[in-house]
Every structure is written in structure tokens, then in C-alpha cells.
Fold this sequence. Notes:
InterPro entries (chain B): FtsK/SpoIIIE/SftA (IPR050206), FtsK_dom (IPR002543), P-loop_NTPase (IPR027417)
Protein name (chain B): Cell division protein FtsK
Radius of gyration of chain A: 39 Å
Binding site for ATP (chain B): 430-437
Distance between the termini of chain A: 106 Å
Oligomer: heterodimer
Helix content of chain B: 25-40%
Pfam family, one (chain B): FtsK_SpoIIIE
Domain FtsK (chain B): 412-617
Number of strands of chain A: 0
Radius of gyration of chain B: 48 Å
Number of strands of chain B: 31
Strand content of chain A: under 5%
Amino acid sequence: xxxxxxxxxxxxxxxxxxxxxxxxxxxxxxxxxxxxxxxxxxxxxxxxxxxxxxxxxxxxxxxxxxxxxxxxxxxxxxxxxxxxxxxxxxxxxxxxxxxxxxxxxxxxxxxxxxxxxxxxxxxxxxxxxxxxxxxxxxxxxxxxxx
Amino acid sequence: xxxxxxxxxxxxxxxxxxxxxxxxxxxxxxxxxxxxxxxxxxxxxxxxxxxxxxxxxxxxxxxxxxxxxxxxxxxxxxxxxxxxxxxxxxxxxxxxxxxxxxxxxxxxxxxxxxxxxxxxxxxxxxxxxxxxxxxxxxxxxxxxxxxxxxxxxxxxxxxxxxxxxxxxxxxxxxxxxxxxxxxxxxxxxxxxxxxxxxxxxxxxxxxxxxxxxxxxxxxxxxxxxxxxxxxxxxxxxxxxxxxxxxxxxxxxxxxxxxxxxxxxxxxxxxxxxxxxxxxxxxxxxxxxxxxxxxxxxxxxxxxxxxxxxxxxxxxxxxxxxxxxxxxxxxxxxxxxxxxxxxxxxxxxxxxxxxxxxxxxxxxxxxxxxxxxxxxxxxxxxxxxxxxxxxxxxxxxxxxxxxxxxxxxxxxxxxxxxxxxxxxxxxxxxxxxxxxxxxxxxxxxxxxxxxxxxxxxxxxxxxxxxxxxxxxxxxxxxxxxxxxxxxxxxxxxxxxxxxxxxxxxxxxxxxxxxxxxxxxxxxxxxxxxxxxxxxxxxxxxxxxxxxxxxxxxxxxxxxxxxxxxxxxxxxxxxxxxxxxxxxxxxxxxxxxxxxxxxxxxxxxxxxxxxxxxxxxxxxxxxxxxxxxxxxxxxxxxxxxxxxxxxxxxxxxxxxxxxxxxxxxxxxxxxxxxxxxxxxxxxxxxxxxxxxxxxxxxxxxxxxxxxxxxxxxxxxxxxxxxxxxxxxxxxxxxxxxxxxxxxxxxxxxxxxxxxxxxxxxxxxxxxxxxxxxxxxxxxxxxxxxxxxxxxxxxxxxxxxxxxxxxxxxxxxxxxxxxxxxxxxxxxxxxxxxxxxxxxxxxxxxxxxxxxxxxxxxxxxxxxxxxxxxxxxxxxxxxxxxxxxxxxxxxxxxxxxxxxxxxxxxxxxxxxxxxxxxxxxxxxxxxxxxxxxxxxxxxxxx
Lengths: 146, 939
């Protein structure tokens, strides 16, 4: 048993009789404006909703722009690295007269999403591997000359 | 495979791997960049659309349309740029925005327009909102009793910001509710004119012609505004005001408002609408259309217009203000017209674009107005008849707050007389032949048809011989009576006491009501009725025609009448007692004009043609040139602005008031009214006071005649066994004396068992013999011992009676005294005879008479004697000692002769035919006028 309800007398009901509170009838003008208010309210509601969403969007747009600047920088770095590697590879392959050079590769956006660092590392490793494949022969040739 | 080939293969593979790795590294970062850019673009798109608002965005050229200018790339790729709203990448965002939009407006879209359409349909039926095809050209029939349309259509609205453009009717409140303010641009002024014309036509076509008056003022032009309405001017329904005279229009409206406040808005009503209640609109609406030029009015006009606006609505004054910059401190709806022809409106707010209804067909408007004017003229020229004064159903009104009824017609419109707390009493003036009786009949008929006898009682008194109220009491030819009449007094003539009696009765009733009100702790009849719903508290209207008779002489009657009139006039208002006094000429009635406390209460003044002083002359001389059958009704104590002139229908011809009375009588006759007819002699055997007499009372009651009072009660003397209980009738006419003595003896006879009392009738003058014999016959028929003696037996009778009384007084007789009444006709005729002394005893018959008068009453022997003059009576009594005659009735003797017999008020008595002055020294402080009975002697 709840001690709170036993400690106090229950509040007597305020209205004993069956009387109905008369609601004054609305005039047609009041009723008309009441209905119009549905539309006004809807407009207000819509504007409010838009405002909230716009504020949210503005915030997001600001942060996205930030991210875009970052990714642009990153892209530039990646491109530079790739170009550098490519240039070196071309230089190194220059001697391999049999090798038919091709234009630099177009970006392949179909790669599975992974952190960019992995791809950068993979590119470095691939270059290293290429370099290695070329380097062995030079060593041999030098030995043969000696 | 050779070593060289092997190496080449390894290099190729490594290169291929390197190629892939570069492509992957580049691709990965490029994709990331692009994904971010795309997301950013979407966000930007959404921000733009939402920031602009979707409703505006979808109409925005930059977003919705493709630019015709292509970039070089676009030309090369043959892939022109798409409009942002139709770009596939934004489709999802756009869908979301649209979804939100529909959600927000869901309730409006699904219910709003439909609800508005239904609402306007329900409160603005007929011309108020329907297309003109259904009403234009047909004059209206509504008289305001079914209410006033709450809204009046002006056009179609669309919520521009809503996803779906669903049109709905736009309507504004007008009459009694709100003014209308219209502002336009130079380009859209034509639309403002159209709006005004459409609305006026709707209103004019809704109501009965005449219920709406239009005033037009246009600062720019004298004529030309609202040309289609011009036919209305010929029926006075349209007044066009001079551009330079705005003040005249504003003055007229202000004066109208003032009049409504003083005349119509009484008894606590705040608006004309509440006065009219469920019934017909009593006061026409006035719509004032003011066309401005977007410049402010002069300061004084501005202020006056604001006053009219503030107080106008309650008084039925409606303003249409076009292009006048003004702030109004009362309900107003504003329609603002834009240059592009659309509008906004305070009813619908800024989100709704309103397209006003198109103008009504040019040719049909003047025709419709002509039809309205014609109908109005037809109504106006129709003579209002008595029947037009009556309501459709009788006895439906409630008189708690007052009574009001039309009495005549002004231009076909009924003009009412109202009696209530603020207009308590009415004064009617009109020389003979001016139609006063006709007016009173019209007023009474109109009142009686509206209020049931439980709501209204009438007391009708007519001093003149013309007998104008006799019809309201049952008569020989027409047994019906007016159920409301409680008392009808006709031929009152010189019986001014009856007027006083009526005022006394009203004063007593007033006090009774005040006491009852006090018990319920209220002060007014209206509140008493609310507190005591089961009680019967009708309003009382007392009409006294030719009331100047009341104040005709400088005597006690006038004094009493003045005092009572003041009392009732001052305090009757709150107890629902209203006086209607009428007279041929009220100008010289001192009792009325001499006391401001009286005439100031008579705020309702009704002047018939040529009536003098009823209205506040000389400023108000409206009655002078009043045509026949007309009256000036004025509820403002006769000051000129209160005049209402109307024609009073014929209410006295056969088939008018008499027919109504018969109808009402058949409906519920109730009790017949008391009738006082000054030309009629009250019939003893029909008098309730006589019929109620029974044997058994030790002190029998003698009825001498009828007192002039409201109840028609009898004048009484109690024959107790005390000295002085004899009655003398003084006068020279045998008929009067015989009537009093006959009535007195007959009433005594009713109070004794057969043979219990003895009646001795002594006829001492010959001409009294028929009366004496008739009385004897009547008494004998009742079983009494009645003997008639002549002059030869008088001495013996008196001596014998005196001797018996002596023996009773000295104790020598032991028989108990039995009632014995000596009815002596013309005592003075036997004077000489009685003066003769008995030679043996030296006693005269006069001594015996004096003994009988002195000692008779205590021994149940009473004298009812007739003397033919005061001196002759005195001669029969001991010199200077007249108290053996305790009560007397005097006829044709002058008041001052009676001074020795009664109080000084008898001085005022002057003889008049068939009226006696009655005084009982044991009971009265002042004498009363009585009417002797008809004892049936003639027949």
C-alpha cells in the first residue's frame, strides 16, 4: 500500500452534478479564421522544419568543404607521388629497349574502399618491386664486365 | 625459357602491378574526392530549396528551368546541363523535401478547403454567397428575423504555400459585426469598385427592400461611383453625398447613432441586434461607402469617422472605407488589392492569395436595383392597416423588460410605442376629432395582440361622455370583452373620485410589488420576474382618457389625485406600472405641469394633429402641420430629434379592434373586467357585497349605496348596539332618499331570520308612498314583519316606541329588546304635528322622536330617516347636539350646510345628480361619495 495515499484524505471531487460546461458557440468568423489557421500553422511548421534542416545543412556543408579541401590536398599528394614514381619508372625502363612504354594509368575508381595509405603503400611497394626486377640485371651485367 | 625472357617477364609483371597500384591509389583518392563533392552539392541543393521554400523553389526559374546557354564542354558532349530540380542526383533530396511539405500541410489539404466551403455555405446562404444567377434581380425577403448571414462572399482563395492549389470561398463579416477596409493601387482601383458593388448587391438583395440604406461619398467625384446602384436613389435607398461635404454624411451618421442610443438601445441592450432579438429588424442598416484617394482625411473628419466606426456597428451603421488611410478601433476586416489583380485579406492571412469575384453583368445591376427600388416603393405606398399592426401569432411576447408595439406606419415601416423602465409613462394630446380614440385603439390592439393577459393588464378609464372604452367590457349587444382589461371605467364624468380610486389602487399594487421585490432582494419588476418565475407579475398599463377632469377643480380630489399621480409616476416605472394619460388639451392642466416630478416622468409624448404643448414647443412644432390620421411619436420628452411621424391605421371601424377583441376573447376570455359606468345605477340585488350578507351577526351591516372605488364595493354602516347608530338621509328628492332607505332596509332584512326583526315604514310625504309600499312588499316577501303607516300614525308610533325604550332603560320591562327598524320617509313633514304637546303629560312627539334617536340604538331600535334639508334635520334633534345621527347621506345640499354634521372636508361638496355624500362619524375621517342603489323599485 502506498503510504502517500493512506496518509491523506483523498481530494473530494470538484463537480458533483452532471452539469455540462457550456462552450460558447463560435461565430462563423471565428470558425473561418480557425480553419484558415490550419494553413497558417502548416506554413509555419514547414518553415520551422526548413529552418532546422537548413541550419543542419549549413553546418554539414561547412565541414564537408573542410573535408573536400583535405581530400584535395591528399589527392594532390597521391598524384605527385604517382607521377614521381612513374617518372622514375619510365627513366629506369628507358634502357630496356624491348619494353614498350604506355601512358600513365587512369585512376581506377572501382577499387574496393580501403584507407588511402594502404593504396599508397601498395603503390610504393609495386614501384619497389619494379625497381627490384630491373636492378638484378644491372648487377649481373656489372659482374660480367668485371 | 631463356634467362632474358624470364627477366623480361618479371619486369612486365612488376610494371603491370605498378600500373595497377598507381591506378588504384589515384582512383581511391579521386573517388573519395568526388563522393564528398557530390554530397556537398546535394546539401547545397537542399539548402537552396529549403531556404527559398519549396513552394517558391518549384516556381523559381533558376531551379526549374534549363539555361539556354551551354558551356563548351556541354556542347562537345552533347549533354546539356539539366535544371537542378530535375537532376537525378537530387531526386532523393527533392522527394524528401516534398514529403515533408505534404506532411506539414496534410491536415489543411485533406480538410481545410472543404471545411471552409461548407462553412460559407451554411452561414451565407442565398445572395450572401451564391452565384449571382440565382438571386440578382429578385428583391430580398429577409426581415432579419432569421438572423443575418455571418459571412458575405468576396472571392476565391488559394493557399499559395500549400502543395496543392485547392480553391475555397473567401468571405467577410459585415452588418453588426465588422467594418470593411479596402486598399487598392491605382491599377486595381477598378477592382475595389467591383468588390464594393458586388457586396452591396449581395446585401441589398438579401434583405427586404428598405432594411438597408446606402450612403456613398467619393472624394474624387460627385457622381459616377457605383453607377449601377443609381436606381436606388428614387426609393431613398441610396444617398450620394457631395465630395466637399463629408462632414454632412458623418454628422448624419453620428446623429443616427445618437438617436439609436437614446431611443432603441434602452433597457440595457447594447446593440440593435439584441433589441431586435429573434424578431424583425427594427432599425434599418446604414452602409456608408467612402471612397478616398489614399491621402489622409482632415483631422476633424478623421476623428469623427473614427467615432462613427467605434459606435456604428452596435447601431447598424456599417462602413466600407476604400483607400482612406485610417486606423479604426473596432472590428474591421481589410482587403488589400495588389497591382496584379490579386488580393490579400485579413480573413485569410498572408498565405492566401484571393482572387475577387468578377464584376456582376453590367446590364443586370441597374435592373436589379430598379427592382429593389420598385419593391420598396410598393411597400411604402401600401397603406398600413390595423391588421398590419398585429403579429403573426398572438401572445408570444414577454413583457419582463417592457412592452413595445407598433402603432402606425412611416413609409411602410412600423413605428412603435414603448413603455418600459426608461420610457415609463405616456402623455397623449389631441383635440377632439384628431383621432385620439383611434390612436388609443390602435395602441391597445397592437399591445393586446402581442402580450398575453399574464404579461399585460389594462385599466381603462374614460372621463368623457363619448364612451370610448365601453367596448372593452361585456355589453348587451356584444358579450365579449378584452381579456387584458381588469377594469373599464366609462362615463366617469364628474365622478373624479373614481380616477383617484384607480390611482390609489395602482399605488397600492405598486407597493405590493415593491414588497414582493424586496423579499426577493431585487428592486425592479424585471428582476422580480426572474427571481420569481412562477409568480404572476404582468405589466400594468392604465389609460386615463380626458384626464384633465381629474384636476378639474381646486379641491381634495385634485389634491389626492396629484399626490397619487406623483407617487405612481415616480415609482411605477420599476414596478411595471405605466400610465397613459390623454387629453384634448394638456396645455393648461395645472396638476400635471405644475409638478416637474410628474411631467418629467412622462417621457413618451404622442401628439395628434394640432395638439398643444405635448411636444416641447416652440422648438418642436411637428404637431401643427401633421395631417389627419397621423401622430408624432416621441420617446424623448418631446424634443424635436425624437420625433417619429407615422400614420395611424383605422382601428375603430367594424372588423378592426372589435374583431381582434372577439378573437382574443375566444382564445382565452379569463375573468370579465370590472365595469364602472357613471351613467348606470348599481343594482342592489347584483352587488356581491349585498349577496354576501347573512343572518347571524349581532351588529348588522347597512348598505347605503356603492362607493366609487375600483372594486365597486358598498358603503356600509354597522348597526352596533351603541348610541348614535341611526342614519339620516338629507335631500329634497324622494328618489335618492328612497333608494338609500330601500337599500339600507333591504340589506338589514337579509341579515335577520323571518319574524326576528320588525320594520316600521312611516310614509310622511305622499310621493314616498310607492317606495314605502315597494319596500314593505320586499321585506314581507323575505318573511319580515313590515308595516306601513301614514302621517296619522306617526305620533302613536314614536310615543309607543319611546315608552318601550323608557321601560327598558328604567328596567321595568324584562323582555329582551328585539331588532326594530323605523324607516321614516320625510320626517320633517311631521314636524308641526310632532311639536304638539300632549295636554296631560306636556310631552311632545318631538320628545318621543328624540328619545327614540337617543336610546334606540343601544336597545336595537334604529332610525333610518329622511329629512328634506339640513335645518329640518337639526330641528328634529336637541339644539346643538347632533351626535344621535351617527351616519348620514346628503344629496342636494351645499357642503357648508353640512359643516355642523361632519368634518371640514364636507365643505367641498357640491350636489350632483344621483350622487350622495356619505359620512359615518364612527368610522370615517372624511366623507365619501356614493351612488344610491337601484332596488328594483322601478320595475
